Amino acid sequence: MKRGFLFTVGLALLGCTQPDTTPNVSTKAFIQTPDAPQSIPNLPEYMYFAGEKIILEDEDIIERLDREVLTNAYYQSATIQIFKRANRWFPLIERILKEEHIPTDFKYLAVIESGLVQAVSPVGAQGFWQFMPYTAKEHALEISSEVDERLHIEKSTRAACAYLHKAQDTLKDWLLASASYNRGIGGVRQDMRWQGTSHYFDTDQNSETARYVFRILAFKLIFENPAAYGFDLNRIELYEPYQTKSVTIRESIPNLAKWAIEQGINFKILTKLNPWLKSNKLTIKNKTYQLLLPAESENLKPYKHYLQ
After folding, report:
1. Within this chain, do residues 221 and 251 fall inside the same structural domain, yes or no?
2. How would you write the pLDDT of the chain (308 residues) with one tens digit per residue?
């Protein structure tokens, strides 16, 4: 969603039109020999993204995808952290993608943009979906001295869906829509126009956009075949989704730290669940806000609770 920055992480469902009975990838490549259980498998002969079958026979396509798979499979510390976070955030992201009629494979776009953390780029993009300030405002995300809804996971995910719908309506292709999240819709159209191409894989792009879609595809392969790439999820302690309750705020809160203590938590916990809060106050003007608080069963409590 921005130029000049791509969060480097080491460096599932199919799309709505893809039947559940169709394999995501050919299975031939994922048969490992007993004497090399940790080896990286060859790429499959094909895979699917957003319901589109991608043939992996062209040497250029194979090498570009292979690069991203190897980079992220072998940078295990970073990829393990993403597996952990994905267990917490993918259920919410997938639900929103389905509600907004976006193929759920686009959850991997959030992975390559931010690693599923509230990342801040050198050029000013923020959040899971790395919105720049001007693009955020175009999609009705509030940015003020008190609030930055680029860091609101549900609202920013819906904003990303709105952008992807626009890109798909314009470019008529989900791979190109993916590329446009990095290059911009106009940039993708310009690149194809002067080169006389109509497909992402046939178009020469800048170095960042050239790797962008392949990073998405690489994470899809790794996440859908973790054991083949050396990730034993039975031995990884995955992060569970937060158990929360929602409180509607209709009146200004002049001191959020004090308010949090009154709710039985503290400011640190409040901003962990509501990272879009930027200051110690929340002023109500023409809208209400929903604040998330930990459910009673959630182990997000002031430390003194654990000393009792």
Report:
1. no
2. 654 444 344 433 333 333 344 456 654 454 443 333 357 889 999 999 999 999 999 999 999 999 999 999 988 899 999 999 999 999 999 999 999 999 999 999 999 999 999 999 999 999 999 999 999 999 999 999 999 999 999 999 999 999 999 999 999 999 999 999 999 999 999 999 999 999 999 999 999 999 999 999 999 999 999 999 999 998 899 999 999 999 999 999 999 999 999 999 999 999 999 999 999 999 999 899 999 999 998 999 999 999 98
Q: Which amino acid is at 245?
A: K
- Give the Cα separation of 306 and 226 in Å (integer): 35
Q: Verify that 229 and 250 share a domain, yes or no.
A: no
Q: Which amino acid is at 121?
A: S
Query: At 289, which helix (H) or strand (E)?
Result: strand 289-294
Pair 261, 207 in one domain: no
Domain that holds residue 288: 244-307
